[in-house]
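From the shared-data thread, chain only:
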Amino acid sequence: MEKYVCTVCGYVYDPAEGDVDAGIPAGTAFADLPEDWVCPVCGTEKDGFEPEE
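Structure, as tokens:
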């Protein structure tokens, strides 16, 4: 699964790790994150992320 990077702060969403603090279990693809999910570091919305190169 592809990692995604926050274009504001550089946080990397890794599907292998999920976002435990937000209740997102490991193995959750970026596309499957809830639409209201935001960057846990800076609060940027999902559309502020780009695939990691």
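The chain has a mean pLDDT of 97.
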